[in-house]
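Encode chain A's predicted structure.
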Amino acid sequence: MSLRIDNLAVHKFIWLFITLMPVLPTMGGADVMQKLMHMMFLGFMLLCMACKKVHFPKSYLCLSLIVAIGLSAYYTFNTLFFTKEIVVRDFGDLTRPIIYLTYTFFAFIFPLSEVDFGKLFKFLIKVVLFQIFISIFVYFPFLWPIVDIFKGRPSFDMPLHFYRWSGTFGYPSDFSFLLSFFIFYYYSLYVKKQSIKFKEWALVGLCFIALIMTFSRGGIFSTIGILGLSYFFTGAIKRKSSYVMLISGVVAISSAVIYFSEDFEQVAYMTSIVTSEDQKMDSSTGHRFKEMELAVEYSTKAPPFGAGSSRVELGKRIPIIESFYGFHLMKWGILGLLIILSIKTVIMLACLSVRQRKYKLDGTISSVAFAVILLTLSEVLLFGLSSAITDRFKCLPAYYLLVGYVFSFYFRKQHDGVQ
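Encoded structure for chain A:
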């Protein structure tokens, strides 16, 4: 029996589910809630698959399953042979490729026409506006009980972390990743010389303000850095107005940092990496350097392999692994890093193909593909030095859902609709 389902409504529901999933830092926090979110998502998807016919492109299904299962097998090999003390928690690392695949499959299970995808993007704009709105709650103590539902760190953890904007994404860096997606999207329109309405410019401005208010060094520097790099390779350099925006942005950000640096601990936190008078690194920067030292140590013990999941042993050396390169080099070695970089490259090539296609309507998917390219580059080139951002709480489903949308159009032969 096949049940008729409104695919667009399902996608909106899933994004609301991810957006409103609580963090509950005093009840296990993001670590527990992320696992619960993945299990609930998988259960929902399996239930829907039982109620409707699903048509996967054979080439995509076979290739993606081979890659995901092969990568999980490689992770299992590393863990069995190089992890000294295996515990139940190590199992989570072995299933990561399957989790990635689950979210990318979603766009194939509930395919969207070009028209519906445009409607979904407009819905996502409302989602990010809600994120910005709820971030302001940190300034009103009577609203802190609501904020504490979604903050990675509760209100009694003052003052640095709590006042940084994070929407419902738990952590400022995670929120900055979501914001950068919308900034990259509208940058795509600018590059293509499409008309951008005043309200869209206003949205970009809000996203930039929110990005600054996250005070996420990784998020801010990687977003601006990738925009700067792409500026020379996308044709934007040929537009005279880009020079005005570039100079205005540099002046505005520099002025804000200089003016507020002595009054706000968050700004001092951002600039401490390059302005420390005693040349001492703050704890966050020092943590990243320690990660890279351990990454070199573990990836050279038995090259090209790593230490496997090894949560117990690594936990004794460093409390948490945060960076993209630290995570892959320590656990999966040089080969593991090369494999994941190859996958990221394939994602970007698929996005580039979709980006270059002609669409009958407004081409929303084309700009989303461009934004996913820049998101991926931001992690690989810059963000990955401080955070494994596409593995974090709500960033993981958000990123791989977007990748799934691009793949679904890449494998689609007709772009004027889906039956």
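The radius of gyration is 21 Å.
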